[in-house]
Amino acid sequence: MAVRTLVVSCSDWPLTAAGVSPGVPAAVLVAQRVVAASPAARALGVTPGMRRRVAQGRCAELLLVADDPDRDAAAYEPVVAALEQVAPGVEVVRPGLCALASRGPSRYAGGDERLAAQVVAAVDAALAQVTGSGPGGGSAQRWACRVGIADGPFAAELAATLVVQLADGIPAKCEELPASSRVVIFTVAQQQQRQKPWVVVPAGRSRRFLAPYAVDVLRRPALADLLHRLGIHTVGDLAALPAASVGSRFGPDAALAHRLARGLDERPVTARVAPPELTAQLELDPPAASVEQVLFAAKGLADRFAEGLARHRLTCQRISIEAETEHGERLARLWRHDALTAAAVVDRVRWQLDGWLSGTARSPDGPPTGGLALIRLVPNQVSADTGRQLGLWGPEEALDRVARALARVQGVLGPDAVTTAVPCGGRDPGERVAQVRWGDPRRAPRPADRPWPGRLPAPSPATVLTEPRPARLVGDDGTTVEVSDRCEVSAAPARLSVGSGGWLDVVGWAGPWPAAERWWDPHTAADRHRFQVATADGEAWLVTVRGGASYVEAVYD
Amino acid sequence: MAPVATSLPDASHLAPLRDGRREPLPVVPAIAPLLPSGALRPGTVISVTGSTSLALTLLAGASQAGAWCAAVGLPGLGLVAAGEHGIALDRLVLVDAPGDAWATVVATLVEALDVVLVRPAQRRSESDVRRLSARVRERESVVVAIGEWSGSDVRLAQTRCRWEGLGPGHGHLRARRVEVQVTGRGAAARPRTAVLWLPGPGGGAEPIVAPAVSPVVAPVVAADRPAVVARTA
Questions:
Q1: pLDDT in tens, A271-286
Q2: Which of A196, A272, A420, A470 is the most buried (most CB within 10 A)?
Q3: Nearest to B104 among A412, A435, A539 (CB)
């Protein structure tokens, strides 16, 4: 029997976190696909998974919001804090979705329905604070949470999703089902009053509740595809198969899916207690003031933690991340994830600390007063590692392999020595790309989508000199080429000498491309003029004239 | 300082890591004729002299196909140009200053990444280069070296080039005709010469279809001359 679980789902959390009103048609895009859409957008037919063009075709005024997991996580912290006031042991599955074991709290509250009502009240109040709208705002214009209670987190999450679908009036998954199966979902739904923002699946009924869903809800696309082709269309069909046969025919991952289909927990509950040495902790001395400082240390800690688990052939589905400041303030959070790799743990440390340290988390105690002195990773739920089969050369595997190699290089040369490039705004070829340290979020320091007048046209130079080399650019009569304030060139360039090299005849030139930057600040003002110069040896150069001096900044080689 | 001697055992005695040979990595169509197999064969070292663009172009096809690339010892690499040539910047890793540890760094990277672009250190020992070549063969990675690399499988040298698009005081650089000489070992032993656009009028490398035809460059007009004065930060 699965653990009775309550799931609180703030549908479309990224939009809530971004401060968009639900009455505004808005969507969050990742890789040109919609991942979250506001109720107003859904009413116009914009659904998650849709391509950007199709979504904009359905709704021309669709507001597009940038995807920012850090923002989502930081804004979620007050919601979790509010939920903890109602019931202990809250596990964050991802920003916008958390779960808790509801047997105890439900008995305390006097029943599942009452617990659900309390949770909804507490979370909605927190949401109103997060989004800044007062409690008196129109109910149609407020974000609201949905609650599902069922046996096991999987069924409970589907129950919470069902509330959203009923509210939208589009029971999407049901549409695709045969009519006979649809009845069952609606029976459950009709037992509840439709107005309530929760669905309670009675104890022991989760298997029947899940049965009519299509196998796609198991979130294993490859397996679902295979099952469909074998004529196994619904979760109930899958659950009817013998467990041993599913395991031997489709592998360990499908065996887990089969457990879910039968309304059980994904992992068999084992009475094993985590050996104490699996807990990894790190004392920071001196205490760290910023999240970045902690994160670099947390990477090593997470690696150690993952190694400890691997040594005992265990895998961790739930981890408690505890942070303590030098003044003894503590923040502990439970995080749930199917496979907590070291990278996933570091992400969660960042999410948790971002919200806490930056003070955006309006926790009852406010932001901490001192620097962080201790980070502890405690495995909360471990089970034997039956193996998660990753694609042999799939993207995750490749990324993992690359990440390990780069960590070794960082170990040899220091963390700053390995970087990746992020396109950003700027005028010179060297400015238009920023190098960020490997492992840090790829954020552009200057927006690239501004006009940046004076930018040089493509193609860009393949070599950008780290130190501009002094050069001499002269006209026919041997006088140095200068540029006036009105961008007039004193003489047509005829010869170029780079560094201490000899004179090269200029066969073509264009410019000047002027860039007068920060003219309002005499200290940082830079007034420069760029020329493209082709010389007789076939090379082309980017020459900058600044004041009376010329430099070669880049080579088109 | 001999970091390689301690951390990089001679790879020749090791059994091959994987059973099946890896698939060759694709290159952009324009430069496929330059390479003996028309693609980047795993386990090879390609040395490029005379042109950074040519080296970037070698990486572009593989990068677009999802390969991870690294650039070692190239702090002056034009990253905007890399993007224009078609390299996916989110899968390009940069180690600008490997210093004395360059051989160790390259050896580590060829284990995990698909293509490593490297400028060999000024002070390098021939034994380092030999060991690295063996490591590349064993790990079935590809190294593109800017500069000389003794024992490279393919050597590409840009012998002549001419830029198009610049007039006396107008236009801007648009396209470049380059002549590339290919030499190497095995299938590439016979020296060959090829001409191509690098970059072409469309941005990336393009083949020159019929060398007799005059260059297909858009007419240069005086309106190209930039006149806007930037007044913002």
A1: 445 566 788 888 888 8
A2: A420
A3: A412
Sheet holding A280-288, edge to edge: A198-200, A146-151, A4-9, A97-101, A91-94, A330-336, A314-325, A372-384, A280-288
Q: Is the dihedral of CA A207, A211, A215, A218 positive or negative?
A: negative
- Domains, chain B, in order of start with CATH, read 22-120+128-157 (3.40.50.300)
Angstrom CA distances, A257 to A121, A261, B114, stand at 33, 6, 34
Distances from the Cα of A545 to the Cα of A490, A529, B170, angstroms: 12, 5, 17
Tally the C-alpha atoms within 13 A of residue A511's C-alpha that lie toward its C-beta.
30
Which positions 65-104 of B are in contact with A (Cβ < 8 Å)?
A: 66, 68, 75-84, 89-90, 92-99, 101, 104
Cβ separation B68–A402 shorter than 8 A: yes
* Tokens of residue A108, six digits: 């305390």
pLDDT digits (tens, 9 = 90+) for B138-157: 888 999 999 989 888 999 99
Strand ranges (E), chain B? 44-49, 69-72, 92-95, 115-118, 142-146, 154-166, 171-184, 192-197, 206-207
| ipTM field | 0.81
Query: Would you call B218 an interface residue with chain A, using a CB distance cutoff of 8 Å?
Result: no
The rounded percent of chain B whose pLDDT value lies above 90 is 36
CA distance A57 to B163: 43
Q: Do the chains contact at B108 and A461, CB–CB below 8 Å?
A: no
Nearest Cα of chain B lies from the Cα of A299 at a distance, in angstroms, of 19
- Looking up tokens 């958390």 gives A98
Q: Are strands A33-37 and A26-30 parallel, antiparallel or unpaired?
A: antiparallel
Among A13-17, A336-340, A467-471, name the one with the lowest average pLDDT. A336-340
Residue of B nearest to A491 (CA): B169
Q: How far apart are CA A351 and CA A96, in angstroms?
A: 13
Cβ atoms B131, B184 nearer than 8 A: no
Which range, of A174-178, A209-213, A258-262, A273-277, averages the lowest pLDDT?
A174-178
What pLDDT, on a 0 to 100 scale, did the predictor assign at position A328? 80
- Which of B:28-57 have CB within 8 Å of A? 50-53, 56
Q: Are residues B166 and A423, on separate chains, in Cβ contact within 8 Å?
A: no
Contacts of A224 (CB under 8 A, 6+ apart): A214, A215, A216, A218
Residue numbers in B near A461 (CB within 8 A):
78, 81
Measured between CB atoms, which of B77, B95, B226 is closest to A418? Answer: B95
Instruction: Spell out which residues of chain A touch residue B50, defining contact as CB-CB under 8 Å.
Output: 557
Name the β-bridge partners of B178.
B161, B196
Is residue B18 predicted with pLDDT exceeding 70? no
Give pLDDT tens digits for A463-482: 999 888 999 999 998 889 98
Q: How many CB pairs under 8 A join A and B?
A: 181
Distance CA B67, CA B87 (A): 10
Interface with B, mutate which of A393, A463, A507 (most B CBs under 10 A): A463
Interchain CB contact of A392 with B (< 8 Å): no
Question: To which residue do tokens 């390299």 refer?
Answer: B87
Q: Where are the alpha helices (DSSP H) in A51-194?
A: 52-58, 69-86, 103-109, 112-131, 153-168, 172-175, 179-191
Give the per-residue pLDDT at A167. Answer: 56
Which phi and psi (to 5°) does residue A216 adopt?
-60, -25
Q: pLDDT per residue over A487-526, tens digit each?
A: 888 889 999 999 888 899 999 999 788 887 777 777 767 7
Q: Does A510 sit within 8 Å of B170, measured CB to CB?
A: yes
Q: Which residue has 């006031």 as its token pair?
A: A85
- If one compares A458 and A389, the residue with the highest pLDDT of the two is A458
Whose tokens are 């109930």? That residue is A236
pTM score, whole prediction? 0.55
